[in-house]
Amino acid sequence: MLLEFRASNYKSFKEQFTFSMVPAPKQKGLDYSIQTETGGNKKYKSLCSSVIYGANAAGKTNIIGALDVFKCIILRGNIRNSDTVTGGNAAECILDLIPNNTLAKEEPVSFFAKFIRKDILYEYSISLDLGMFMEREYHRSILSETLSVNEKPVFTRTGGKLEIRNVDSIREFLSPDFSANKSAAKTIAQNSLNNEELFLTNGFKTIYSTKLSSEVLAFFSEDLTIFCNSQFLKTEPMYEKKYLVNPFLNEAAGEFGINSNRLVYIKDKDGKNPVLVSMFEKNKGGVPAEIFESYGTLRFINLFPVLSEVFKKGGTLLIDEFDTSLHPKAVMNLITIFHNDELNTNHAQLIFTTQNPMYLNNNLFRRDEIKFVERDDDTKCSVLYPLSDFGTKGTNARKGKDYMNNYFMDKYGAIRDVDFTPVFEKLMKDQNDSKKTD
């Protein structure tokens, strides 16, 4: 369960932003979309969902992208570039794309996540010196790194110095070899530090606790599902038989309005490259879905297995432009399923960006679930803030008010007037002038 994510000096976000999934205080009459989990000896509440609004190029995608980069750095265990870009977010592999391009000198890039996994509260952060934007040959280094478990610091790394703290609080996670080498462990750990490698996934994992390090990694690899580009959202089934019929997908596709009798994945003659086929009556056979079905239907077919898997295991799903090519009523129904306490027993979370104002609905989202991103025209930098920051004393954000209308009236910011008329006037003028000279 994700509680909070922070980052600074990530692309358009020059200053630190805080993306919170913790319910804002004093939100009266908004008891839905709240889930509770135990972390240590305390109970923590989180939101089931969150939606991010903002104008084009405001920086919405950068919020999801920042968490994606943090995830990739942790799973790689270092701050070196990776050779292959696979997920639609080049910054996860080319780290010199990360620093804000308006900076006049080097500033640290920082990431922080607070989350619960298996009844344990974790807080992990890193601060990095990546140089300036697109400074490819810069000698990078990890400036700081911290890990806390159940609000007790485990280790703090600052520059080249390492401090191990509260080892007794993680006694059940300590490696068997640690006790035998307890006196020498800190010296070995200190000597193992590498400026470009995380202590969490290297020295700490090897010397102190493989189990605890693996649990942190498991949150990022198993519990966090991130799509920074919806075009890369594609699922392929894993199966042994030549044909695969997913009854849940077919039932959901029927509700969505698919025209074919059923959907079947078929392997090629080599037993590879499964193709999705729209099947009809026996005498009519089947047609590859990419030929027959609409883009919206294909997108739903790829999206639904991802949604259902996250819902089933109880992870956190982040998707940029989640509702692309989907009807708002279908999207709203999926959101309400995440809000359904009787169904969402594994505490799955849904976080997405959108341009569709229909979800600015106080019967669908709490004020603290609605986030806005605004980019300053002068500084070119982004800021993030929730609707709950506006309070309820006025008339703009109180429950029962028309959030969508207020948004279009520019009462919340994160919107801009767009007028392409001057561009087309110039275009036509240039064309007419060109004709006169011919």
Write up what this structure looks like.
This protein has helices spanning 60-76, 176-180, 182-192, 203-208, 210-223, 247-256, 289-292, 295-313, 328-339, 403-408, 421-437, and strands at residues 2-8, 17-20, 34-39, 42-47, 49-54, 109-117, 120-129, 141-149, 152-158, 161-164, 224-227, 243-244, 262-266, 275-279, 286-288, 316-319, 349-353, 370-375, 382-386. The protein is of the alpha+beta class. It has a 7-stranded antiparallel beta sheet. α6 (247-256) packs across α8 (295-313). The protein is globular and about 80 Å long.
Question: Concise description?
Answer:
The protein is of the alpha+beta class and 438 residues long. The chain has 11 helices and 19 strands.
